[in-house]
C-alpha cells in the first residue's frame, strides 16, 4: 500500500509542528519550506489537518500553526485513515469495471491487508514519531519564509 502525497505531507507537517515549543508558531509558508513542499499543496493539507482537529491555525500577529493536544496524542492509524479516506486498494467499479468483481476474493483480501496496515499504525501517536533521532533532525530543518 502506498500513501497519497497529501497524507505524506500532512504527516511531515504534523511531525514538524510536534517538535516546536508552544511559543513557536510558524506560518504555512515557513512549514512548507522546512519540509520542502510547495506552499499551495501545504495550504490544502493544513486546511485538512485543521478540519481534523490536529492543528490550530491562528491569524494575525502572534498567529501561526500549532499542533493541538488532540493532534499530539491522536493514533497514527486513525490519522492516516482519516487522511486517506475510505476506499479500496483496487478499483473494481471504475470506468472499465473488472469482470471478476462479482465473484472475486482479491478485493476482500486486500481490504483485510489495508486494515492490518492501519492497525499496525494504531499504537503510535505523533509524539512517538518525533522521539530521537527524528526530533533533533526536525528541529534542525530551516524555517524560512
UniProtKB/TrEMBL annotation:
Pfam families: Rrf2 (PF02082). Keywords: DNA-binding. SUPFAM superfamilies: Winged helix' DNA-binding domain. The keyword DNA-binding applies. GO terms for cellular component: cytosol. GO terms for molecular function: DNA binding; DNA-binding transcription factor activity. Its cofactor is [2Fe-2S] cluster. The keyword Secreted does not apply. It comes from the Bacteria. NCBIfam families: rrf2_super. PANTHER family: HTH-TYPE TRANSCRIPTIONAL REPRESSOR NSRR (PTHR33221:SF4), WINGED HELIX-TURN-HELIX TRANSCRIPTIONAL REGULATOR, RRF2 FAMILY (PTHR33221). This is Transcriptional regulator. The lineage of its organism: Bacteria, Bacillati, Actinomycetota, Actinomycetes, Kitasatosporales.
